Amino acid sequence: MLLWYTSSMKTIKSEIIDEQIIQKSKFITHLIPVSSEEQAKTRLSEIKKQHPKAHHHCTALVIEDIVRSNDDGEPASSAGLPMLQMLQAHDLNYVLAVVIRYFGGIKLGVGGLIRAYSSSVQQAIEQAALFEKTIVYQVMVEIDFDQLSIIETQLNNQAEIKERFYSDKAGFELEVYDLTLLDKLYDLSNGRLIIVDQQPVEKWIEMKKSL
Predict the structure, then answer these.
(1) Which is nearest to 27 in space by CA: 98, 99, 85, 83?
(2) Are 108 and 25 a contacting pair, CB within 8 Å?
(3) To which H or E segment does residue 17 belong?
(4) For residues 107 and 8, is the Cβ–Cβ distance under 8 A?
(5) Which residues face 159 on adjacent strands?
(6) What's the rounded Cα separation, in Å, for the pair 174 and 211?
(7) Which of 75, 106, 105, 83 is nearest to 29 (CA)?
(8) Torsions phi, psi of 153, nearest 5?
(9) Is the CB of residue 145 less than 8 Å from the CB of residue 170?
(10) DSSP code of 92?
(11) Which residues in the chain show pLDDT less than 70?
């Protein structure tokens, strides 16, 4: 039995900027795709320079095992943490959220701040095109001509035939989405399926939003 693995994550492909006014305070949200903590720090520094008079620049960051949040002067756990929880609720990765607050003179209280920062990130996420970054495999296989139907009939939506080659055997270049398919093909061919090569490829797939 052959063993195959795949992995995926959800992220955004481009930066989103959104704004809302709550009790006279202005909340400006930047939802930013980042590939490293260093890139996140650089982007945050740029945003702070763009808004030097803002009272708070609260942040939440998720990059694999790097999970951070910062209240930037707001009461503890009233800003950064609810922002982070919103990113995690949507299973987002490689994303920096920055919410800039211009204080409008009316105190919101801890509960009000939690709702304001959460809704700011939620509203930005709703504006974003979400993508799933999936690892697929480009696989080259060979099979005997009398077993061609195994390849042709078993792919369904689990793989795509990119190219065909014919010599003493039938060859296929496949883009495989569900890698357990190769186990199935191998078993159906009674071990006669030959896997010549396989290479992992990152592929972005836009996620459809629910109506």
Answers:
(1) 99
(2) yes
(3) strand 16-22
(4) no
(5) 176
(6) 33
(7) 83
(8) -100, -15
(9) yes
(10) B
(11) 1-8, 208-211
- Closest to 63 measured CA to CA, from 11, 128, 13, 98: 11
Under a CB-based contact definition with an 8 Å cutoff, are residues 209 and 37 in contact? no
pLDDT number for residue 155: 78
CA nearest neighbour of 106 among 21, 24, 20, 26: 24
Nearest to 78 by CA among 62, 56, 105: 56
Token code pair at residue 162: 């990119």
Q: How many Cβ atoms are within 10 Å of 208's Cβ, its own excluded?
A: 7
Task: Look at the block and give the residue holding tokens 């992220």.
Answer: 11
pTM of the prediction? 0.70
Give me the pLDDT at residue 52, please.
Answer: 96
Distances (CA, A) of 186 to 26, 136, 151, 153, 192: 60, 18, 10, 14, 7
Predicted pLDDT of residue 207: 75
What are the structure tokens assigned to 189, written together? 């061919």
pLDDT at res. 4: 33
Distance CA 108, CA 145 (A): 72
Helices in 53-175 by DSSP H: which ranges?
Answer: 80-89, 109-127, 148-154
Place of tokens 């809704």: 119
21 — phi, psi (to 5°)? Answer: -110, 125
Residue 77 makes CB contacts below 8 A (sequence gap 6+) with 71
> What six digits make up the tokens of 100?
């800039």
